[in-house]
Design goal:
Low-confidence stretches: none
Bound molecules: zinc ion
Mean pLDDT: 90
Number of strands: 9
Helix content: 25-40%
Strand order of the largest sheet: 6-5-2-9
Shape: globular
Radius of gyration: 20 Å
Length: about 190
Amino acid sequence: MPTVEENIKAFMEGEPESTGLPLIVHPVLMMDEIVVEQRPQWDNKMNKILGACRECSWKVALDFNTAEDLEVLCNVVEDGDIHLPNGATVAAFGILSKDPQVYSPRPCCISGTDKHKTGPQQATFIQQILTAAKNKKTRRNNTYHMASIASDGDAKRGSALIKLTMNRDLAPSSSIYPVLSNLELMNL
Ligand SMILES: [Zn+2]
């Protein structure tokens, strides 16, 4: 089964790389929702049932071996224990570059969104993608330093991003500290 790390590795392989000096590359993680049909689907390559929301799907075995597996799935959906989402989060990486081919976003993960879940629970999902990117940050002469995380205006993802990114004071050793620390109302 392809993991987020493998998807990141796959798109990196198609990117230009430095043959001389080490090159620092700045990717941006972008996230938005797409609408998906609210129904389970069988993936014949993995022999798994897809279409359950990411936060709840662990509650039931999604391997398709017998008709009973489907029955169990239908029952837990009916009982509301797991959900069939009508939206999916797409996470993509784009590199800050003047080259449109390098700049364009490459999706690394598409995952059914559970509207019932809170911001902190979404933070776990985003953290998994960030960890995958960190694990793949070196590719021969290229080093990838995450520049920023971009999102649509989804309030729950907003609170997830606050939890992930606004979790400590700006260090006095930071190069922007002398500029920002003089601003009275700045939240450091
Ligand atoms: Zn759910």
